[in-house]
Each structure stands twice: as C-alpha cells, then as structure tokens.
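Case 490 in the screening queue. Each case pairs one protein sequence with one candidate compound; here the compound is magnesium ion. For every case the pipeline is the same: read the inputs, emit a complex structure as tokens, and attach any notable structural observations.

Predict complex for case 490.
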Amino acid sequence: MFSEQDWEAAPRLGNAYAALPERFFERLSAKPVASPKCVVLNEKLASELGLDVTFLKSSAGTAMLAGNAFPENIEPLASAYAGHQFGEFVQELGDGRALLVGDVLDRDGRRREIQLKGSGPTKFSRAGDGRAALGPVLREYVFSEAFAGLGLPTTRALGVIAHDGPVRRETDLRGAVLARVASSHVRIGTFEYFAARRDVEALELLASHVFEHLQPDLPLSRRSGLALLEAVIARQAELTARWMLVGFVHGAMNTDNVTISGETIDFGPCAFMDEYRSDAVFSSIDSGGRYAYGNQPRITLWNLARFAGALLPLIHPTREDAIKLAEEALARFPYHYERVFYSGFRAKLGLAEREEGDIRLITDLLSLMEQTSSDFTLTLRSLSDQLERPGQSHADGFEDWCARWRERLGREDVDASELRDRMLKSNPKFIPRSHLVEVAIRAAVERDDFLPFTRLVEVVSNPYEDQPGQEIYAAPPLEEERVRQTFCGT
Ligand code: AMP
Ligand code: MG
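Case 490 output:
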C-alpha cells in the first residue's frame, strides 16, 4: 500500500524491549482500522523526540500512528504484565489494547518509547475488543499535556488518530488510537508477572533492561535489586507527593498502572478536585474509596510493598535477609514523601526557609479549606494577591491563618516581587477541570469540532501563566456543570 518513498522520513525506531526473551511479550502486526484520520498532533513533542512532523502528517505517518502499517524493521509487541487490581492479584493482564512500536533517543539523549493505545486485540485482550473510544483518548491526551505543563512526571500524548470503528460500548462510539510516549512502559505489574511464575531469570533480565533504559549511566556495580527498589520507592513517593500538591486523584492506582520510571500513566477515571476534600473520589467503579485523594500516599506504599515482594529474589539470596532489606527500604517511604510534599507546599506559600511550625501552618490551611469547601487550586493561586491586598480574604476563618502566614513570611529574606514570582510558579492557575474537559470532548465527539479541545490543551499546557482573557478556564464549575464521576472508558 505504501512505497519505500512514503517511509523515507519515518522515524528510525529501535526496540530494546523486543530483545528480551519471547515470554515477555507477543509480537504483533498491524490490525488496521477504517478511515484513520489524524485529529490531534503534538508537534512540539514530535520535535522534542526528533520525529519528522511532515512525515507524521502524511498518510503513511497517519497509518503508522493508527497501527495500520509500519515501515520495515519495526517490531511491534504487546507486553505481558500482571497486577493487583483493587487489592486483588491478577496473574495475567498485559497490553490488551496497546502496542509498543519502539523507542527513540530524544533531543536530550533520553530514551523514550512510543506506544499505540487502542490498536486492536492481542493475546492479552481477554473479553475486550482491544480498542479505545475517542472520548477517553482525548481525556488521556489533555491530562498528559496538563501534567507536562505542570512539570509533573508523566507519559505524554503524541497524537490522536480517529477512525470509523465503531467501538461498541453501551452504544457504538467513534474509535481512536492514542500515540503515547513514556520513558518506559514497564510497571510494577511487569515484575509481578514473572515473580508469580517464579521466573527469577526473567526478573533479572527485566531489572537489567530497566537500568539500561532509565539509568544508562549508572555503573554496573550499582545496579542491584535493592538499588532498583530504592529508586522506585523514591520516584513513586515523589510522584504521589506531587499529585497531592496539585489536588489530583488518579483513580486507578492498580499495580499494573504504576510505572517503574515514576511517570504517571493511564489517565482514566482521574480528576483534579475543585473544592478540597481529603476523601474525594471520582472513579465510577471505586465505590469503597480505596483510591480517594487522601489515601493515595498509603496506596502507593502498599503498591511498593507488592513491588518489593516481587523483587525479593534479586535483593538477597536468603529470603529472610531480603525481606529485612526490603522492609528497611520501604520504611524510608514517609521520608521521601514528606520531603517532597512539604518542600512543595512551602514553595506554594512562598517559603524557602524551613521552620518547625511550617507543617502546622500547612495542615491548618488544608483543614480550613476542607471546612469551607474552598477551591483547592484557586485558594492557593490567590494567596499571592493577599501579599498586596492583605485583608481581602477568601472565606471566613482565613483571616487568622493569613495573619500567621504573613508573620511567618516576615522571616523570609526576600522582596515582595520575588516572593510573588516564587508563589505564582508553584501554584497553577489552570488545571483540566472535569467540566471543561467534558465540554471539549463533547464538541469533538458529537460535532467533530476539535477547536474547544485544542484550546483547552493550549491553556492547561501553560498552567502557571496568567493568560489574561482565559479566566473562564480557571473558574470552578457552576453547580449544574459539576462532574461527580469519571470513567475508565474501557
Ligand atoms: P486499564 O484499566 O486501562 O489499566 O486496563 C487494565 C487491563 O485491561 C489491561 O490489561 C488492559 O490492556 C485491559 N483492557 C482495558 N481495556 C481493554 C479493551 N478495550 N480491550 C482489551 N483489553 C483491555
Ligand atoms: Mg493500565
């Protein structure tokens, strides 16, 4: 269908994962979709990855991103993994609707993988159709790019290819493939898959692959099972702390959705909260609130304990010693978490120094926000206005707190404009609020109008800038606009 010429500017992809033994994945060829159309392309990310934008926009490029056709030498595969879903272990999950196409070195010399999500059935599909609907794909896109704008570790969205599906859910929906980018798609569940099969050789190969991929400069002598566990504990503690700092609820923190790289993955039933609530839950299937906002640090630690369990054979030859070392490493989780959380929150309050009373100041503000149902994002963003117009407080009860905060600020060695700057860089104005996401997706899905979507992506990609004229994107929902539940869309 395509000539050699059509592929001339196609990316030269490697695929380090394909060099692992066959039991790590299923090799697959394309499962074509009807009438693929590139509806969103992330040109900035494409050039960051050194990909040719003109090629990506060509029909061969669209075919590639749809998983319809690949240039020669590409070895797409669906990877095997297991996972704890809502606390229950499932021995075999795997890429049931995704294909790892390959990897590239980006402009910074970092290895990045390209994966197609919604690319068709694999041997891991179980009862699923291997497809994705356009709505959830756009959702994942806007959240990924908002995260990137916020500076949080995340998988990225390279482009969306819509097709004529149809994808059967409750009704027939328009289908899409999301081209997604991650530094690695290996998850805790990938390690659990081999641990459950007592395949220690595979665990070793996987650990080596991960080190080679994510920390190629780390000397071989420092690549131990314990070092891997410690690195993932630190990355996941930081990631969770940073979710908490922006009021994000992931909603599906199953171990198959927890990356070894520390990047956020699988933006399904997630949401940023509007008003602050420590028990905020949005996922339609999380009826027990397992993955509620305030539970996230605990759940991450629980997930890391599953990771430690899978890694035991690589930590020490004697099981007892391995457990002891793993427990010691896990015991440092609160240290990593709190370090990132409190230094991040201090920055939000404009504080660079550390004082003992700061933690109290922070927790008191959170309690106040909860009592007064204050908007998390706007309360923090508007604190910098308090610097110039003290007394113009947001809600009852804030006066006393503001007085304490101002007194504390008095002990910072910084001038007012620098302080304001510091705070504005730590408190985003724009987040992808559920009601805005919904409106933008509806326009695309129902009217084929992608303008509201691309506008929203643009605004939330620059969350710390004031962007005069875009206030509507900063506002919390009106009561009738409020979105109470989000869905994984599978
Ligand atoms: P997720 O909830 O998206 O993280 O997916 C959990 C598991 O279900 C993974 O193994 C997915 O590959 C699989 N899965 C989700 N949706 C589908 C689908 N439409 N078809 C096949 N497999 C799916
Ligand atoms: Mg997943």
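Case 490 observations:
- Residues 16-185 form one domain.
- The longest strand covers residues 156-168.
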